[in-house]
Write a structure and sequence with these properties.
7-stranded antiparallel β-sheet; mainly beta; 17 strands; Ribosomal protein L2, domain 3; 4-stranded antiparallel β-sheet; about 280 residues; 2 helices; globular; OB fold (Dihydrolipoamide Acetyltransferase, E2P); 2 domains
């Protein structure tokens, strides 16, 4: 999936780049597998902003992606590979033998006409969904379940890939994209292959307007504000106000560990992503 660079006819064209979308085979989604996505502008049910810098953006419909892949032993044919505005990876529309359709995350190398399946007896090939117990060590995987049966939660973004390092007792040791090595039960399912749209990390938006299309509003730096608005504001000339980098409410933003020491899942982390 190469990127398209434009002639520098404007300052934004000089630095911006877009995907060539060559892998896409459909322009519109399968409407029965979509639903309306209401905008919140970062506000909760009381109307209070709980996620800053959200708002606007292009209208979207949410694609009902099947992360569980629970129709075991039933092969399905890939009908289309499509763009999904709600995630960075591509999605694929598949059809089972009984004509039922569903969306799945499209791994790199999956093409229209390919057959995919899920279940413990499935073949180990790109696009198939198997329990970790049946996947050989060293195999690249994505869409990994944390709790068996609840659907894939880990490694779902564009280009994401994890690796099975080893299997010990009832757990598999998985190396995640962050570098963390985590124990996950062998009964949990994962999809073979790497998430599609690998070049997404190399895309340059090029202008502020493209951020607004994505629903991202401008962000003012703390040092550019007044002391009444931010702990790092104020001062003559460029100044941090004598404070370490922090949020408007005093939460330190460099080096402060925010993970709870008593978190129940700590025992499943073999190697921390920061080490």
């Amino acid at each position: 999936m190469p990127l398209i660079k434009f002639k520098p006819t404007t300052p934004t064209r000089r630095f911006g780049s877009v995907s060539d979308f060559a892998e896409l085979t459909a322009n519109t989604p399968f409407k029965p597998l979509t639903e309306a996505k209401r905008r919140t502008g970062g506000r909760n049910n009381h109307g209070h902003i709980t996620a800053r810098r959200n708002g606007g953006g292009h209208k979207k419909r949410y694609r009902l992606v099947d992360f569980r892949r629970s129709r075991f032993g039933k092969p399905a044919k890939v009908l289309t590979v499509e763009y999904d505005p709600n995630r960075t990876s591509r999605v694929a529309l598949i059809e089972y033998e009984d004509k039922q359709k569903s969306y799945i995350l499209a791994p790199e190398g999956l093409h229209v006409g390919d057959m995919v399946a899920s279940g413990p007896e499935s073949e180990v090939k790109v696009g198939n969904h198997l329990p970790l117990r049946k996947i050989p060590e060293g195999t690249p995987v994505h869409n990994i379940e944390l709790i068996p049966g609840l659907g894939g939660k880990l490694v779902r973004a564009a280009g994401g890939v994890a690796q099975i390092l080893s299997k010990e007792n009832e757990f598999a040791h998985i190396k995640l994209p962050s570098g963390e090595i985590r124990m996950i039960r062998l009964e949990a399912y994962a999809t073979i292959g790497q998430c599609s749209n690998i070049d997404n990390e190399n895309i340059s938006l090029g202008k502020a307007g493209r951020s607004r299309w994505l629903g991202l509003r401008p962000a003012s730096r703390g040092v550019a504000k007044n002391p009444v608005d931010h702990p790092m504001g104020g001062g003559e000339g460029k100044s941090k106000g004598g404070n370490h980098p922090q949020s408007p409410w005093g939460q330190k933003s460099k080096g402060l560990k925010t993970r709870q020491k008593s978190k129940a899942s700590n025992k499943y982390i073999v190697k921390d992503r920061r080490k």
